[in-house]
Design a protein that fits this description.
mainly alpha, six-stranded mixed β-sheet, two-stranded antiparallel sheet, 41 helices, 12 strands, globular
Length: 983
């Protein structure tokens, strides 16, 4: 909705409204526009001349293809010529029909196709569905697309595009106005003033505080950690946005927040007051959620960093242990020399004993309980001398005790010696836990502040970690020790921790107490792990919310289950037998019991797999490449000779013109772009961003455009969703090309990541262990037709496999792969299980397969040739009882993911080996064990399959190389624009 009233026309190209595209392949012409003999006879009976015959056939075929009637002058010449030639009409025949004749032709087509023409009913259906969807969707194109789908389902002819466009604008304006009024009414006058002040108040840097809402989290350093905690406090002070947005759909909140994020302060001030406040509230709401996500991520990363440092310190101790041990031995020898028979301590002790003996001799006849008066009377004038002698003895004795203490102080003090002894003890027990607290002091106050600001809740009945956190917080001002019992006398349960941690937090010299510093380190480390696994959730967060609450209710899942099972291939259409927990279990059992005997029976003929009879160690013989055939080399040379030289910018321009992917971009408000030349601006912006060239650097070499204009279009007109839509347009156009069919059928996809350099000071960038440098990972899904279907940009530190499923689900192109190849990371149990439940055949490339466990279907299952793969007899057995008991939950999760209720990435991030409390993880793990064992047996038994897996992953490597070339070619000083365009 724009700032003012009125109807902003939507381009038909931005919608799914049927129309002729610029690019129509020969295959499409034959498939959709070839008239049958019966259709030609039918049209000829109603046409009085060649022009009318051609017009009638064009109306028929166009209606069959699009569901509406185009104007005759809108039909592309390629279609007209194709139909004319198909019915042998004379060259130069053009379609022509007067208004009344054209109406009769349309009526005849409607009668033949059986579709109803009811403009009022179609409009009514369209308005109803638009009004229903407008509460959660803000883009006019989306509303039009949904209306198109419902009108077609009703068997009605589509209304004209201008009718639907005007209707969408009207409904959208009314619904959005209602939402804005509802938000405005929830705000107090003080909150309105506070929000509006964001657009005018400036901070020390001279920018408005409105920009502060959009700030991204920086690298998880200590100072940034503290700054992010302060940022959370600031956005929370702006108000309880959840109350103000009660009843507003999450999709509408996201759209409004995106529109506000794309605008600057002066631009937002141009909106009317109610819309301005609504956008601000949505942006603040998202900023509060993002602040919680970022701060929690920072907390987890800070803990992970300090654990890494503690382990590195342990490794350093191992390297330095000889020097430390020798130093401790030397220190101990010095202390012993001071206190042995010939040392100063022994001499001092003897002198003190002699002095004490003098005093005892003087008072020896008195009882030890004698009164002071009796002692004074006995000693008389000798009392002063006796006291002096006693003081000398005490001084000598104190000096004797001070000698070894002084020696220890000379070595760094008792605390330093204890610390060095603790480090040596850590080395001998692989005991990094006692070293962790030494890396936490700077973070301690911020971590306590964080856990106080965030509302942490457990997602299960196990609250031991949060109870321990509350106990640590209660005694955080204690010096060295804290009680091991709660205030009510209950013992603090630390059974969630490892034995090393339980040992570290206790001091045998202080029974009934915990060592505070180690207790805090243990609690923070456990909290970070539970946040990562989802066992602890953050209220008001998005990424760290309780994911189980996002699942669809079982009643909704049950209603969709039948169709879902058929769609993903778990059940067959028309099968009357119920698909329940027993059927699911039997299906998995059958897969495993069929795969293992088959692999066993085929082992004698399997030339690739060899199992050593003595050791049982398996191995695969390497496949020798046959090399490139001579004919292939000749073909490559001919292609290179005939391929014209193209510039990269020229390629982008041509595809934008023919495919019209540039129409996907526009302002976040959903309105049409107010640019003089949106085509040129979007093409250049795509080139600049795609080649990793900065906008101001590009403006130096491209006349007619400024860096500010390029930056503005990139920030305000481009987004991840619209980029994915543009990619889908290109994928669909590519799939229609005949040459793409020579590379593959589109049924298989390979997923892998490649390192990308990033701006270092952000939360996403990390140092990659795999690549040895900082940055992020571009994770691609590459079709077997050599085109990228989907790309995620992810941090280096995450398990890449969790993004395998998400890329397939978010792929909106016409290519729908069912077989997925990945690298070794793809063999995760939960990922394999979810892929199976969603109908995907996940076949990763497995390099370390010899280290993996094969699972038996039963304890009694044994095999003649390959039994060594399964380990000891009777062990490594699938728990099918667990799988059967968790059937409902497995289906609930799978259907929720398929319906988009929960992100597969979020789910798989939480389903990890640390999820000890999570029953969902154990169920997915058990299903994944079945699937992986079957896939491993297939992989070992089928040499052509191994070659296909390798070939598929090689396609990803080839694409990664092309991607890196395109991202660096533009900035290379050794290439010219024309040579850069040649692949």
């Amino acid at each position: 909705m724009s700032s003012g009233a009125g109807w902003a026309v939507t381009s038909i190209e931005r919608t799914a409204y049927p129309r002729f595209k610029r690019l129509i392949t020969a295959h499409e012409l034959h498939l959709f526009f070839s008239p049958s003999r019966d259709e030609v006879e039918w049209a000829a009976a109603r046409a009085g001349c060649d022009e009318h015959l051609l017009a009638q056939l064009l109306m028929l075929k166009s209606y069959q293809r699009m569901g509406c009637f185009p104007k005759l002058d809108e039909v592309p010449d390629t279609v007209v010529d194709f139909v004319r030639r198909a019915v042998d009409l004379p060259e130069g025949t053009v379609p022509r029909a007067a208004n009344r004749t054209a109406e009769r032709q349309r009526t005849a087509v409607r009668q033949r196709t059986g579709l109803s023409y009811d403009k009022a009913k179609a409009r009514k259906i369209a308005e109803a569905v638009m009004r229903n969807e407008a509460v959660s969707k803000n883009r006019p194109a989306d509303l039009i697309n949904i209306a198109l789908e419902k009108v077609v389902e009703a068997g009605l002819e589509l209304p004209g595009f201008t009718t639907l466009d005007a209707l969408a604008a009207k409904v959208r304006t009314e619904v959005n106005a209602s939402i804005c009024v509802g938000i405005y009414d929830q705000l107090s006058e003080a909150h309105r003033e506070r929000l509006l002040a964001l657009l005018s108040d400036k901070d020390a840097s001279g920018t408005t505080r409105y920009n502060k809402l959009k700030q991204s989290a920086k690298a998880p350093t200590w100072s940034h950690f503290r700054s992010q905690a302060e940022h959370l406090g600031w956005v929370d002070e702006l108000g309880e946005t959840g109350v103000w947005l009660d009843g507003v759909a999450s999709g509408e909140i996201t759209d409004f927040a995106g529109e506000a994020d794309a605008a600057d302060a002066p631009g937002l001030r141009d909106y009317n007051l109610m819309k301005r406040l609504a956008l601000l509230v949505c942006l603040v709401h998202k900023a509060r959620m993002r602040a919680r996500d970022d701060l929690t991520t920072m907390f987890c990363k800070r803990i992970a960093l300090q654990v890494k440092r503690a382990k590195a310190e342990l490794e350093s101790i191992r390297e330095q242990q000889q020097a430390i041990v020798e130093a401790l031995i030397g220190n101990y020898r010095t202390v012993l020399q001071h206190i042995d028979a010939d040392g100063p301590v022994q001499a001092a002790r003897e002198k003190a004993a002699a002095l004490t003996a003098e005093i005892l001799a003087a008072v020896g006849e008195l009882d030890q309980d004698a009164e002071a008066g009796a002692v004074a009377a006995r000693l008389g004038s000798g009392l002063a001398l006796a006291l002096h002698t006693m003081a000398k003895a005490l001084r000598v004795q104190a000096g004797a005790l001070g000698v070894p203490a002084a020696a220890v102080n000379g070595f760094g003090g008792f605390e330093g010696q204890y610390e060095r002894i603790e480090k040596v003890a850590a080395h001998h027990g692989n005991y990094w836990e006692v070293l962790l607290y030494g890396h936490l002091p700077k973070d301690r106050s911020t971590m306590y502040d964080l856990t106080s600001r965030l509302e942490l809740t457990t997602t299960s009945e196990d609250s031991r970690v949060l109870d321990a956190l509350a106990h640590a917080r209660r005694y955080k001002t204690s010096r060295d020790y804290i009680p091991e019992r709660h205030e009510d006398g209950r013992p603090v349960d630390i059974s969630f921790a490892t034995l090393n941690w339980q040992k570290a937090v206790r001091d045998k010299n202080r029974p009934g107490a915990f060592v505070r510093k180690h207790f805090e380190a243990m609690v923070f480390a456990a909290l970070a792990e539970e946040l990562r696994t989802g066992d602890v959730a953050v209220t008001g967060s998005e990424e760290y919310a309780d994911w189980s609450e996002q699942l669809l209710p079982w009643e909704d899942v049950e209603a969709k289950l039948g169709a879902y099972l058929v769609e993903v291939g778990l059940a067959e259409s028309g099968d009357d037998a119920p698909y329940d927990a027993v059927a699911f279990r039997r299906q998995l059992e059958d897969k495993l019991t069929a795969a293992a005997p088959s692999a066993d029976a085929g082992y004698p003929d399997n030339e690739g797999l060899v199992i050593d009879l003595e050791t049982g160690i398996p191995s695969l013989k390497a496949h020798r490449s046959e090399g490139q055939r001579a004919s292939a080399k000749v073909l490559e040379q001919e292609i290179r000779a005939r391929m014209p030289e193209r510039s990269l910018l020229g390629i982008i321009s041509r595809t934008a013109y023919w495919v019209e992917w540039w129409r996907r971009f526009g302002p976040a408000s959903g309105n049409e772009p107010k640019l003089k030349d949106p085509f040129g601006r979007y093409v250049i912006t795509t080139f600049v961003k795609g080649t990793n060239m900065g906008p101001y650097e590009a403006a130096r070499h491209i006349p007619g455009v400024s860096g500010h204009e390029l930056s503005l279009s990139a920030n305000r007109h481009f987004s991840i969703p619209t980029l994915n839509e543009a990619i889908a347009d290109l994928v669909n156009a590519h799939a229609r090309l005949d040459i793409s069919q020579a590379w593959g059928g589109g049924s298989a996809v390979a997923a892998d990541g490649t390192h990308m350099d990033t701006y270092l000071n952000n939360l996403l960038s990390e140092t990659s262990v795999r690549y040895g440098k900082p940055g992020g990972i571009a994770y691609h899904h590459i079709s077997d037709t050599y085109i990228a279907l989907f790309t995620h940009f992810i941090p280096c530190g995450v398990w890449e496999a969790v993004y395998i499923i998400e890329g397939l689900l978010k792929n909106t192109s016409e290519l729908k792969p069912t077989t997925v190849h990945a690298d070794t990371q793809g063999q995760s149990f939960p990922v394999l299980a979810l892929a199976h439940l969603l109908g995907f055949d996940l076949m990763p490339r497995i390099r370390n397969w010899k280290d993996l466990t094969f699972y038996r279907p039963t304890k009694r299952a044994e095999y003649v040739h390959i039994d060594a793969l399964f380990g000891e007899p009777g062990r490594n057995v699938i728990d099918f009882d667990l799988i059967e008991s968790q059937f409902r939950h497995l289906m609930r999760v799978a259907v929720s993911v398929r319906e988009g209720a929960i992100s597969s990435t979020l789910l798989l991030r939480r389903l990890r080996a640390g999820s000890r409390k999570n029953a969902t993880y154990t169920a997915f793990r058990e299903v994944g064990r079945v699937v992986r064992t079957v896939q491993l047996l297939r992989y070992l038994s089928d040499a052509p399959l191994r070659r296909r897996v390798t070939a598929a992953t090689n396609k990803v490597e080839a694409f990664n190389g092309f991607s890196q070339w395109s991202a660096t070619a533009a900035s290379s000083p050794t290439t010219t624009p024309s040579s850069r365009g040649r692949p």
